[in-house]
Amino acid sequence: MSNRFLLSVVICSLAACGCGEQSDSATGSVGQDDQNSGLPQTVAPMPGAASMELSDSAGASAVVPATRLTDIDETAVTAAEGSHKSDREPIYDTETPGDELIAAALRRAQRDHKHVLIEWGGNWCGWCYKLHDVFHNDQTVQPIVFEEYELVLVDEGNNHDLMLHYGGSDRQYAYPHLTVLDAEGNVLTNQETGSLEVGPKHDPEKVAAFLREWAPKKVDADELLTAALQQAAREDKHVLLRVGTPYCGWCKVLAQFIQDHDTLFDKDYVDIKIDTMRMTNGGEVADRFAPEEPGGVPWFVILDATGSVVATSHGPEGNVGYPHQPNEIAHFISMLRDTGSHLTDDDLSVIEADPTAYRTKREVKTN
């Protein structure tokens, strides 16, 4: 069994992690996770309900007119699946429109250089639960899904036309049905999942092979940095370079925070994330700017257009990570005030208010 998978499960259980966020009681200070080269610090539960030319992957079913499986007698569906309607907790969100779920997943995918994996189905679908369990629990499949994709479950009953938009109307649909999008929302492939089955379950090796085939190409961190510096020079900006890993919960919190305020940060910064696990040359690029004792992740630096460090997240009391405590927030704001030329005092007040409110919310939750 994969050591990385076992470690991720154990750490997640002990830290009571949720939504990719490191528990305050786990190892590492609040606002950052321990930095351990390539090893997961937390494993977030993948969303059970969140975030064009068509080409079928090998083994796809023959193209026939579209049919809604839900229009067939449910008894026949159950018999065909070999699985009774699940009594488990629902995994599909039947309230939020599917296009909103997909849009949120695309935002996260763009942020983290991932693809979007849509699992069409419904809470009535026993095979959907089976595949969902493989995505979450199989030692081979789970790391691929977590590291390379934003998984989003979309209820086909409420979003049938949306499914046809992504999958086409010239095919027969059985569930679960998979669609892979790139980070820009372009359809890369549609996949029926019958060919991924073996007996009464899905074959993890077949599922893993499909996911590997359609995973995003590795980003070269050197090339990413070079492009960011060139953009900064053209636009008279600095580069905000963040360092983290897919298993760092606080990295996700910081990334979401910056994305939520991207119109403000874009005034002065070209924002990039260096993923030391997933990117080619990621570790080497991070090492160029790392302090002697970087501590946990995330950590970040602000570079001028020549690549020189002009500010760092390592303040008088160490790395601020996601700025959480008052002294950390103050250091972060001082970094922006000292290096930015277009952010106004009102802009900085808006940026400062978010982590302050986040801290207050957490303090209320833990009291």
Question: What does it look like?
Answer:
This protein is an alpha+beta fold and 367 residues long. It contains 13 helices and twelve strands. The protein has helices at residues 3-15, 74-81, 98-112, 126-137, 141-148, 160-167, 204-214, 221-235, 249-260, 262-265, 282-289, 326-339, 345-366; strands at 115-121, 149-155, 177-181, 187-192, 197-198, 201-202, 238-244, 269-275, 299-303, 309-312, 314-315, 318-319. The strands form four sheets. A four-stranded mixed sheet has the order 2-1-3-4. Residues 1-28 and 36-85 have low confidence and may be disordered.
- The strands making up the biggest β-sheet line up spatially as 2-1-3-4
Please count the helical segments: 13
**What is the CA-atom radius of gyration, in angstroms?**
22 Å
The overall strand count is: 12
By secondary-structure content and strand pairing, the structural class works out as: alpha+beta
Strand content: 15-25%
- Taking the alpha carbons of the first and last residues, their distance comes to 39 Å
Overall pLDDT metric:
81
Largest sheet: 4 strands, mixed
Low-confidence stretches: 1-28, 36-85
